[in-house]
Q: What sequence folds into this?
């Protein structure tokens, strides 16, 4: 149990700056009170999540949504709040030029512009001390014949190679895949196989990131996690949950058992060991629930799943597996899942000087009332700003 | 063949005013040149689609996107352009009050507001002469436990009953169902069964509308069409196509064989007969392709599928079916599908005094260049306006 | 808590005779040791499940797999073992005549034969005292055009009406729906809406049965449960679980959170109340795990989900829902799910004089060793016998 | 057009010996008249398919279903019938030992047995002159925790390496992937990425085979085809079609447009060029339709899709794509698809001395009546024999 507690204390979950802004569906973005107007306010909110959970010490940025004049100053601001800058997320999907693609666009001019943006993100990594670049390409086509699927792969490879070469010593990029949306017929990086194949060719600084909402129905995500870990190509997670498509609900909200199975494969594959570099990031929206408690709940959900995964009696499991004892092995696995780990985690928090119930503690803190009163006027942050 | 031509000439496909405005995904709406700024300009564009296809004589409105001070004037404007006002589409998903639902919202105040909007739509039907109200509810919940699934049905039933009672003599409403989006856990009208059950209780003026993009993967849409026609409850279609979720691509673009099978069941069930009241409406977006030719192509796709469906040798089919001749029956069916009906439709257009190739004729007309030059300034129409 | 315990004690889960026989996929049926050779031995095995769980007092039969000369004798045998005969399941999919359908077959002769089988099942209900007939039709077509979708509905309605009329006073039938398999293009009762529409027309003795493995990906099953309960048309469940299609795994094994959500809607809708007639039946296979413990585990999984559903603090939930407190309502819901109910259920069993751990108690009993030694020779039961 | 005809004449589609035997679902295998009793009779039936289509000159074997004492004699028999032996398909899913896996089984004894079978298949390749081994592993687990996902990859890699090393100079193996069935929780080779990663490590004699029915809903198969061709790792196809899962219906029957898109990517990627080694194989069942005409129809469906793919005006397409003309590019693509190629193919057949309509010619030939009369008694071939 001491080991489990130590591992849980060492776990580090990154929250995304955009989770604190407004978000929604194509039908409507509902504005909420107290939403940050700039990256400084986003970091302040993220610091609250860390303050109550104790395991969310870094914040991912999204460029250009989090563009500032002085990144060193932003990093300093973060440090003062007790958090640090995490991964830099590129954005090559919101400029009018990208209607038909970014790095895979038929036009060389657009591709140049997109790749330049990616290189700029590496500059920002240098300025902020971030070691991770996250690449998601919305590139794809809506109609059969619209563009050449294969030529787009050539263009993608070319751009990735240029960015890869620009990476500094301690830097890496994570390539994200997604089945569909916003492209609806063919996506240029639709699955882990595509991301993996590109990353293998590029080298060790290129790894795959698994967004838990980016798969076809029925795809076994923990298999992918196990496979990528075995290959040394699992760079990290973008956690969220979904019932249907890429719903971006709070991680663990739709299928907590799946989250447990994923975390078990992480544990099994050594992904929680020091130095493996598996990044545990949230990438989700809070369309209708309040943002900060939404993030706190999400961090707690990952932590609970991790605790359960660590509780699996691996010796008993291995024995049952070796004997081909189907029900016995499954029972060992389910025993851990069915355990209520909330008392253990409350204890852990108290040992660390935190309130045992982060949700209640945040609610009582008055922080929301404060930002709701103070953050009046200005342009609330959202996906478009 | 004469019969087939007559049936094709009588077919009537309604285009939606919102197809002429900008649209997109939650990630980005790409603006296009020449997009209408108001309902009058939308009608002008819709009239082009009818001018070149000859079978798109009505236009659906969306309230409040198409709100005007004088609906009689709008209807007159439409008539002058050679088109008419079709279905009135309600919108209870874009007001800030509707974050947690409209007619199923826990708050009575919000429900009242939503129902009042629906009643206002009936007023607009009266003013424009429209006989059809289309009801789509984005209502639902994102998280298990968020609200009471059953109580929401009670509230839905109550609102529907009030609107039903308000309908005038020649009026009806069509209830639309949708699996998910924007609600991601439970949708209040998720499937045809739910819509059907409510409509049966309400009476003959309530019918189901089938949006071809609103089903779970693998659902057989033509079965639903056949079933609803058999029950006298098929009010019409919202046509579009999809590879994954509710992609809202051009109808027939993703699975033309499915469209043919749907149209075959319509033919089989008498849905093209005069007086059945099955409305053939488009409900789709043109995120990256130009709007007017996107609509022309869509209308042509429905027409081609209809022509093929009419070409099925039903006598031969029935004979093969009765004998249990699996391959023979399938072959009769596929013979019609594999026929190239484009020459027949070109001929039909020419007999009617239209250009044989609507796409080419529109492209040559200079209309796009004209609106691109004229429609400068102002606020382009989109889902939000 | 007293109420909860009383409700749990009153719950009754029916196991299916075919779960004790061999089963498999189209690729292979793996035989297991000790598998019953006849209905008498199946009942003996089912009695074991009841002996250790205390809540599985009835056994569903499948005709003709469980055909015997003297049903009264079989029922007597069951009573002696401490169990009773539950639902009678018809089988109109394994006779060579049914290749193209049973009650929807194009040939009147085959339809007559199929309907006669259903009527024979009612005779067996009379003979065994069973009050429930379960109807599943594998009927459907593999290829577009193969048969007339609509005419098949007419034939289905005709057969159902004849069976309905034959039902005695205290008898009912449950109509099962299934998305696909063994028919691969169009299934004649593919979804709950189809089953519901037929049942509504037939009357109160016809109800819908929800097999948890028979839906398209992403379909919200608890919504259907809530809806059918509201309509008074939920006849019962065929429980099992699945990751992909109709995998027929142990209920609760693939998505225990979904099972909890389903049971919550049952509780919410009064489906556990005395006299509602909602039947909780297992319908699953044990292709690779041993049969009896597979059934014990499954019964326990339903019981655990039921216990959690009963633990939901409905007053707190209603309050949070009324306030539109998304996170609060979800938290109340998840609190119940995250509770480890195994100690409560162990206590309950001990109060009833049962061993606290049914799996361990069965394993220690020596029953498996006994049947493995005794049941040698003869033809093991399976789907085909 | 001359080029197109030449390419079509050179196309070669392999039929599988097991398509001529009985098949079915887990619910029922319906026996048909005239079904072969041994591999010799299967080859005779396959020769009929080639006789009427002219493009099906080889037949895949399945071991042990097609085990014979003298493979040289079987190969000679094939040559006399005008056909040759194609790929050798291994079977490590039907022995009782394989209940929990074959090459990934926890037990070393079972793994040895399974690998030995694969090596035996290479012996049969030597004996028959076959140059292709097809490997499909049904291996996987049904329940979370049942076995160690990662260890199973280690075992898989070990077995594949041993088989790879045994391959002779002109020999290769094709590794097949499948999402699920018969394993229902985690499959050891579930997707193209897994197969690809193993093949890349093994070397040039290991390639991926794409079975068109083995993907999750919504997966874009033509993307995978384009990607694997670009990587030089597309070994071939197992063609069939599906509406839901792995339905194994006739290729082109469920989504002919998808088949066209796949064949377009094959053409685009040079997969029809001489020497690329892309194998076009059928792998499907005829559960309810007659076998030989089912195969003829399937071969014709692939041919029609290929003809349409070859008709795409690639110059016009490239021009529209380069201009970002979404509708224009799609229109060029659809023009080819909408063309009725049946007259062209009839002409082609006549030029080659074949009947223009293979289905009609076969039906008239009397072959079916002959085998139905002659093949009486004995054990009909099926998946189990």
A:
């Amino acid at each position: 149990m001491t080991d489990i507690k130590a591992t849980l204390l060492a776990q580090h979950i990154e929250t995304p700056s955009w989770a604190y802004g407004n978000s929604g569906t194509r039908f409507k973005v509902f504005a909420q009170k107290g939403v940050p107007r700039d990256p400084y306010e986003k970091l302040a909110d993220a610091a609250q999540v860390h303050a109550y959970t104790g395991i969310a010490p870094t914040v991912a940025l999204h460029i250009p949504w989090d563009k500032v004049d002085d990144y060193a100053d932003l990093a300093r601001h973060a440090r003062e709040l007790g958090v640090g800058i995490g991964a830099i997320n590129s954005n090559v999907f919101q400029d009018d030029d990208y209607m038909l693609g970014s790095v895979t666009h038929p036009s060389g001019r657009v591709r140049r512009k997109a790749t330049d943006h990616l290189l700029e993100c590496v500059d920002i990594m240098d300025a902020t001390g971030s070691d991770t670049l996250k690449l998601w390409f919305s590139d794809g086509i809506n109609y059969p014949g619209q563009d050449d699927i294969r030529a787009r792969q050539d263009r993608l490879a070319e751009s990735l190679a240029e960015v890869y070469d620009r990476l500094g010593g301690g830097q890496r990029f994570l390539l994200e895949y997604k089945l569909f949306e916003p492209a609806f017929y063919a996506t240029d990086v639709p699955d882990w196989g595509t991301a993996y194949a590109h990353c293998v060719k590029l080298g060790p600084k290129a790894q795959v990131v698994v967004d838990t909402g980016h798969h076809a129905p029925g795809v076994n995500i923990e298999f992918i996690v196990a496979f990528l870990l075995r290959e040394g190509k699992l760079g990290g997670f973008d956690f969220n949950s979904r019932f249907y498509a890429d719903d971006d609900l709070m991680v663990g909200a739709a299928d907590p058992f799946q989250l447990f199975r994923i975390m078990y494969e992480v544990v099994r594959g050594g992904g929680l060991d020091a130095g493996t570099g598996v990044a545990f990031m949230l990438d989700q929206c809070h369309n209708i629930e309040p943002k900060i408690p939404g993030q706190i709940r999400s961090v707690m959900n990952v932590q609970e799943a991790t605790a359960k995964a660590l509780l699996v009696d691996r010796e008993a499991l291995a024995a049952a597996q070796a004997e081909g004892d189907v029900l016995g092995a499954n029972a060992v696995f389910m025993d851990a899942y069915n355990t209520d780990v909330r008392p253990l985690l409350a204890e852990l928090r108290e040992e660390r000087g935190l309130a045992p119930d982060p949700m209640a503690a945040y609610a009582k803190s008055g922080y929301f009332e404060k930002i709701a009163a103070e953050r009046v006027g200005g342009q609330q942050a959202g996906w478009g700003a």
